[in-house]
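step=encode ok
step=design start
structure_in=
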């Protein structure tokens, strides 16, 4: 044995002299192996005692299953986290250590700790480049508080009442067009998206957009969405670059709407007719103290509003239709309640005002139950800005991407959480107050959705009008209610339904 060992150096020496590249190959291979070992050890060190894969592919990790089997991937993470004593599971994707949080208590903890040394909301890994440093979602502390204070007048009772009438006209317009397409079953996902985009534009900037500008806004908005899902290659011709340029154009377009609004509002004789008018009115009052926003800042914030509103509401609309279809007794109660306050056959003179909307308590409870069971943002990504003590035994490492599960939180604490039961939100039971920390559809803490009341009013209005004006029946399909992440959640069948007019003579 000793002679063999003694011969190895000679063999290597001879091989090296015969092939000078052999040692380079051996060295390079050794470096790669060392890097892979370090990566694996680093993952295991961060993972510690939490459930998750023990071995992961270098760099890519489980990216393939996340992309090709998204629903299965997140279901598996939820199952692992649920089985964990702390309600957390781990994974590794594209060089990033991931935490999935099942526990409602810990999800609440993440939402309430948005600050420079804890967590930051993460639209996408490279979203800040697209949205800009001054986006509301990336702000912290006093700067964030000051800006949210300037937003408050946009959602006053008077403003919400104005928006309700604008929303109602747009909803009716689209429901009419849906019926014209309904000779065969129609999937509603894209139709709800188009409805919501027009509603947002109308409510936010009213008539300040020309038809051409509306068309370009839709095109540029799609560029932004596509760029968020592509590699961050900031070169001409690439989707990421197009998204950055599209956001700049959107900001300019919306900023010009603010300029037009100022010309209309500055004499103080005009009543606000859309959100930018309410904002301009408040902005003019604050100009004397220098506490106001520039047109560019207004345009940037309006774009943020548009983005926040666009994907979540269509998801909630589809799940409301799907769940009402599954629960005809709930649908009948909605129709009966709406009939007490609104007669659609006299739509030309009888509108659903904000006052009438407030009286539709059961319809509002239905919307809350939809959001509890199927929150559009089922999992909300954040990134750890620093090491954070999540539990007594576990510190989240800096750079970790965390996914607090809103959908899992809503299924904890509530009695019979898998049952669609809107009565839980009625005054007699008030489970929304008892289990407030588990109801995270609008987030909580400093970054809680600023337009929560706006979104609720809009959804109650849509459910009331759709249930009253339409007869609908979903097509029976296997796994039609399976979750699809786009990135908000939608039913697998895109809510494929038969539609017909319910009230005689509709459209009214």
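sequence_out=
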């Amino acid at each position: 044995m000793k002679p063999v060992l003694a011969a190895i150096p000679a063999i290597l020496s001879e091989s090296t002299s015969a092939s000078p590249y052999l040692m380079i190959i051996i060295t390079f291979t050794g470096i790669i192996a060392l890097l892979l070992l370090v990566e694996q050890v680093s993952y295991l060190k961060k993972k510690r005692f939490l459930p998750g894969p023990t071995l992961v592919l270098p760099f890519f990790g489980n990216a393939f299953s996340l992309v090709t089997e998204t629903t299965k991937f997140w279901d598996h993470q939820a199952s692992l986290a649920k089985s964990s004593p702390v309600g957390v599971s781990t994974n590794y994707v594209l060089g990033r250590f991931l935490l999935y949080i099942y526990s409602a208590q810990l999800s609440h903890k993440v939402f309430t700790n948005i600050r420079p040394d804890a967590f930051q909301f993460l639209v996408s890994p490279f979203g800040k480049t697209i949205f800009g440093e001054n986006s509301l979602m990336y702000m912290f502390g006093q700067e964030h508080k000051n800006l949210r204070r300037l937003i408050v007048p946009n959602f006053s009772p008077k403003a919400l009442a104005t928006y309700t009438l604008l929303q109602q006209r747009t909803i009716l317009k689209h429901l009419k067009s849906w019926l014209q397409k309904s000779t065969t079953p129609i999937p509603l996902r894209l139709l709800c998206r188009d409805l919501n985009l027009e509603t947002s534009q109308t409510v936010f900037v009213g008539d300040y957009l020309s038809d051409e500008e509306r068309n370009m806004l839709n095109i540029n908005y799609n560029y932004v969405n596509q760029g968020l899902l592509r590699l961050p290659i900031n070169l001409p011709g690439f989707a990421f670059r197009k998204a950055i340029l599209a956001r700049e154009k959107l900001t300019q377009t919306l900023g010009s709407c603010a300029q037009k609004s100022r010309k209309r509002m500055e004499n103080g004789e005009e009543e606000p007719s859309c959100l930018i008018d309410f904002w301009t009115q408040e902005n003019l009052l604050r100009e004397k103290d220098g506490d106001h926003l520039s047109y560019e800042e207004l345009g940037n914030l309006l774009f943020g509003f548009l983005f926040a509103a666009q994907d979540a509401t269509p998801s909630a609309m589809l799940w409301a239709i799907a769940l009402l279809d599954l629960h005809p007794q709930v649908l009948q109660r909605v129709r009966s309640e709406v009939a007490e306050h609104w007669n659609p056959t006299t739509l030309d003179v009888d509108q659903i005002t904000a006052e009438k909307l407030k009286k539709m308590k059961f319809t509002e409870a239905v919307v809350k139950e939809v959001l509890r069971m199927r929150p559009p943002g089922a999992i909300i990504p954040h990134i750890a800005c620093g090491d954070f003590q999540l539990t007594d035994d576990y510190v989240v490492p800096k750079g970790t991407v965390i996914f607090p599960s809103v959908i899992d939180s809503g299924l904890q604490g509530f009695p019979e959480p898998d049952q669609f039961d809107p009565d839980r939100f009625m005054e007699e039971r008030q489970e929304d107050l008892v289990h407030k920390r588990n109801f995270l559809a609008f987030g909580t803490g400093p970054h809680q959705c600023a337009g929560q009341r706006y979104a609720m009013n809009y959804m109650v209005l849509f459910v009331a009008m759709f249930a009253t004006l339409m007869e609908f029946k979903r097509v029976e399909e296997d796994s039609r209610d399976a979750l699809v992440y786009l990135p908000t959640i939608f039913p697998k069948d895109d809510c494929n339904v038969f539609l017909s007019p319910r009230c005689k003579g509709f459209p009214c």
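step=design ok
step=annotate ok -> Residues 134-375+410-501 form a domain with the Cytochrome p450 fold (CATH 1.10.630.10).
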